[in-house]
Fold these 3 entries.
Entry 1:
Amino acid sequence: MHHFHLREEALYCEQQGLSALAAQYGTPLYVYSASSIRDNFCRLDTALAPLNHLICYAAKANSNLAILSLLAQLGSGFDIVSGGELYRVLQAGGRADRCTFAGVGKTRHEIEYALREGVYCFNVECEAELETINEIAGMLGKKAPIAIRINPDVDARTHRYISTGKSHNKFGIGLDRAEEVYARAALLPHLQIRGVQTHIGSQILDAQPFVEAICKLIPLVTRLRELYQIEFFSVGGGVGILYKEALESGSPDWWQKNTSSPLTLEKYAAELLPHLSSLGLKILFEPGRSLVGNAGVLIAQVVQVKQTPAKRFVIVDAGMNDLIRPALYESFHQVIPLKPSSVTPGDLADLVGPVCESGDFFLQDVALPELQPGDYIALMSAGAYGFVMSSRYNSRPLVAEVLVEGSHSFLVREREQWADLIRGEHLAI
Ligand code: LLP
């Protein structure tokens, strides 16, 4: 579900024309729709209503303060993976006691910070980490709430870089050793066993792997409830979104129909509910992409069009440093000219950025309209893992972000200037 649409032959985010935003704030520019995020959250929350549940938005998907604040106001908790993310959540008005702290390499400094702030739970990824958390909690005179992340050895059938629930992945503890590790945790005086957690991967478009993982874990979860009176079971995140129509219909405007993903939030909830409702536990969900992915676009401007004997290259001012997903995961983002009617359909071309790497492309060998320098395009579905994964590679300042609500737009991150590039750097001699 998203609020991007064509109106009077121009692309709009809610009631805001995107060309006007590009002209006002410059490009490259991330634009997010507040209503889309709110709708996604409320749809999931409603679908999960039969369960005692807490949605802990995975802040890594998009951690702009304005988005964290919007979700905090809706009552969301947060799944965080660093001290920095906890800091952001608190600055945005989120509550520490609704945060789960995950990650395979939490530092002592981060653990101490999270303990002082009073996070709801540490999701522990290895035995040694139990000892570390126990020791730091002891030093602070606190009891640290913990859950252990269990790796269910389930194939999420997604890109191998974002598959996390197989035994060869670095995440979690194998099901065969889970009870033994819990028993060890129970002996540590400064730990309080609070739950159990799992997460099998991201951009998953089929409920089956989720159900398989949950069913594999249920006997353990039931035992842990008896043994340690655990209060929650977190089933992680991972619901995918539609980046591209499953069957390439050839119609560039499929996204306009607001086609929903094969795994809608309602379907996901309906498939999981029967397995979770009788556990008598609070169920935590950690969605990232499914709440913000379709709620954002990256606007870029055409800088040059270059025709070589081999190809036509449309070169835009956004690069792989601004949106790395195509380069890293070979992912697809639909490209929409901001004024589709003003451009005529063209031949096969590559849509590329200005970065000095051949991997700096958004699309390769696709029928791109006859774009001209100065034209704007939108890279759709860039709200998740877009800005947050950007870098200053090639000394390119980080871009601006705008949040749209109805006909209002808010600059929620200022565009960096060249001076920002060297802030904190010093000449050695
Ligand atoms: N919980 C845990 C423990 C996670 O590791 C993740 C994502 C999530 C929840 C949220 O997953 P989601 O609902 O967003 O699928 N950069 C990649 C995705 C990396 C996902 C990392 N973990 C991409 O752009 O596709």
Entry 2:
Amino acid sequence: MIPTITAFKASPDGGKGMARDMPIRWAFEEVNQPYNVRLVTFEEMKKTPHLTLQPFGQIPTYEEGNLELFESGAIVHHIAMTHRGLLPVDEQARARAVSWMFSAVSTIEPPILDFETAGYFERDKDWYDERKPMLKDRIRARLTRLSQRLGNKEWLDDKFSAGDLMMVTVLRRIKNSDLLEEFQNLFEYVARGEARPAFSRAFAAQLDVFKDSQKEN
Ligand code: GTB
């Protein structure tokens, strides 16, 4: 059965592939699993039936037969667990890869999200300019350790895994700031992820959706 995911009908990211259907598309492409996409508007996301699939009224979701999932990390994990190619067969290596998946979303992403959210919603506050360097320093603290751990390796563990897929996805969110460039090996790590053929196919698919949404406007 071909799984169906949901994505923004009109992504606010301007086609940059920043919304969270992107890691799922990428995971599908890595394991050569075809998938369908149901596009939803912001309005539809906040109502049933979408709310039944995603309790917070967000994308992405995943449906396959009677299995319904939400949370992009959990969906990537499910794809990786049910196909070869994104998690090592060796039990310990697999557990390490899953640690990196969690690390991406629960250690690296939170300070990045704080910084992003402040940029969207707090820019006009009189304390924003004072707070911004502090938020950037919190990201730097995490990136410093991550950069040290990656060193001159290609991927976080021996081979590319779902851990790298999630980590690259999270790091892409700061691509437009100067932060990533401060860490040359992380900058190159993200570029390596984006150079994977599976990433390119996923990126092109989401860009097509964005271009179509522009035609409709
Ligand atoms: N923890 C959930 C997961 O990982 O699945 C978070 C899902 C989530 O944040 N979904 C966002 C959403 O549906 C879209 S991806 N937001 C609508 C809402 O909450 O009402 C986050 C996102 C949105 C936009 C950009 N952008 O414009 O650059 C980037 C990322």
Entry 3:
Amino acid sequence: MDGMWADLLPVGRDGATGGYRRHAWTPADLACREWFAAEAARRGLDLVVDRNGNQWAWWGDPDADGPGVVAGSHLDSVPDGGAYDGPLGVVSAFAALDRLRDRGLVPGRPLAVASFTDEEGARFGIACAGSRLLTGALDADRARNLTDSDGTTLADAMRSAGHDPTHLGRDDETLRRVGTLVELHVEQGRALVDVGAPVGVASTIWPHGRWLLDLAGEANHAGTTRLEDRDDPMLRLAAAVLAAREAAIEHGAVATIGRVAVAPNGTNAIPSRVRAWLDARGAVEADVRAVVAEVAAAAAVDAVEESWTAEVAFDATLRDRLTGLLGGVPVLATAAGHDAGILAAAGVEAAMLFVRNPTGVSHSPAEHAEVDDCHAGVDALATVLAHLTAARP
Ligand code: GLV
Ligand code: MN
Ligand code: MN
């Protein structure tokens, strides 16, 4: 495990902040993909890159002997992200597979390690793009035409990175191979700290989504334009930010405006346009929708939905089986989106394991998991994988 981390840790790391910028189809992302391919090759696993760019490293033949069991997560990051969100699940999956081999286990079903493409949506705006494309939850044409902040389309970015975007979209051949998916992930909260447990199992994912507020104004001089003559969209952004907090409190939800694009972005110019992205989540869909409506009203603009993920309830039978197998570990809901949730919503049997995060901080360079807890996660994942691959379903 140490060697895998040592190779992966410098990739896409910002020297100034210590955070990661591993955005889809950038050189840092490609280096992560090469890392994955090298780990697969080192173990003699069969590397498959599916039509949507997701990577799979198979031990056994999922077409002849499947469906198989898959463990994995993602390697991309948010802007200035932590080291563990995503990579912990992929590194732990390889380490758990090694552990099974060291024990001489011969699985009764094929077993794979997976890395899903563009889980964070940091560059093109849609989270879990690889798994949404795989299941058909994201339309292929829409995906190809998504643009990054420089105006590069996803299709062009993929092409430049050597991946043909022509065949994006629902991929039944790949889905058929996946009998069960288990995603191990660093916890993005303090629930496991509070109960003093290194590992937990997921119950549900809150409904959540992303909306664009596109605020038009009139560019003008910051000094010579009288206040009453201004059409300044920044004021409507300010109203939206405050409304997001107030509405979230009122409806028991969370809401964040963490990304804005200001044009022309000059100190001495009133903006001509402000675009802001609202992230809203809650235990109850109606509450999330109410928050979005109140923010849109405060900004006097339509909130354009860029993505929506309904509540995910992980398979209760599998969840209870894994919880028992791991000695009655805690069961937690999460407000973070995950590829396992996307596959679960598409009818794939899926489960998640969480590893304790001492501060609960995530999507930040301060994200952390202690080494002993990472080992406990690998132990738990190996136990789960040994159980799930013991016999054909
Ligand atoms: C994924 O990390 C999310 O934003 O929920
Ligand atoms: Mn994340
Ligand atoms: Mn993640």
